[in-house]
Input
Amino acid sequence: MKLWVYVLRRLILLVPTLIGLTLLVFALEHAGGPSVFLALYINPHLTGSARQQLVDQLTARFHLNDPIYVQYFYWLGAILQGDWGTSAQNGQAVTTNFVWFMPNTIMLTVVASLLTWVISIPIGVYSATRRDSVLDQGVRVATFTLYSMPIFLIGFALFLTFGTSWHLLPAQGNIDDNLLPTLSSKSWFDSNAVSYPTHIYLIDALLHGDVPIAWNAFLHVILPAVALTLALLAGIIRILRVSMLEVLDQDYIRLARAKGVPERTVNNFHAKKNALLPTVTTFGYLVSGLFGGAVVIEEIFGFKGIGWWTTMAFLNSDIAVVMGSTLVFGIVLVLTTLILDILYGFLDPRIRYE
Output
């Protein structure tokens, strides 16, 4: 089967999954009745006749007096048009908040993923090729310890050690609070404390040539990025080490050694490539799961990404943002699964798309 046919089939199979996800979110949003659902789309500061008029309009728009299955299709139509409701925290559209906060979470995830990949491969390979050595034993103990630690404990350890005890790195926010008055005069910074065009302080400051602001924003990224990296690192090293050990016991590796191929060539060009295949799959799933970890890490460090915003939504009963986050995280996981399946086929020529 050709690759494009396989991709098309997988995309078609994604449709029922996404429909099931929308049904779940719809059921959660409507579980409290029409009044709770209407709160998703009404600015909490709106009162009086204007509020009642909007209630009547929304009731008619979403057909809240019709059977529940009719309401679902009108709700789905609004979702597809980008109308996900209004945040009770700032009165802005949910989609607007996602545009503001999602880039920061994506940046943390990308940085943590790159750091994990760069660090874990040499450590995992080196540990496997020196099995039962002192270094290998140390790596196994360290990764087992780190792997057993929940992500919030990793975050708190970094927060208390480097942030509040030693004061080596800033441990709260995306930038120092005393710089906000300076930022308010910048053309690329608005009254909602949002920078433009990327909504990431570090990148936007660099784009506008403001190096001191960029440096301060960079320092604020270090601790949350390291926390997410440590949460990924132990699992990837352990999986790569085990996979590498299995490959090194294969007959073709023994044959290469018998032919006099240098050990470094055997490890780097014959064993490592095949050992990376299961690691890539696991790595992809763990990265998609980082969005869940970001909820915890961003709250610990007060880093204003989509995880932090979702936590604030929970604490303030902002149902629209909570449901929107549920939908977004679900879509990310589904799409990640598809991408990993396709990527695995590229990396392993033995895979046939059936």
Summary: The chain is about 75% helix and 0% strand. Residues 94-352 form a domain with the MetI-like fold fold (CATH 1.10.3720.10). Residues 127 and 138 are 9 Å apart (CA to CA). The two ends are 6 Å apart (CA to CA).
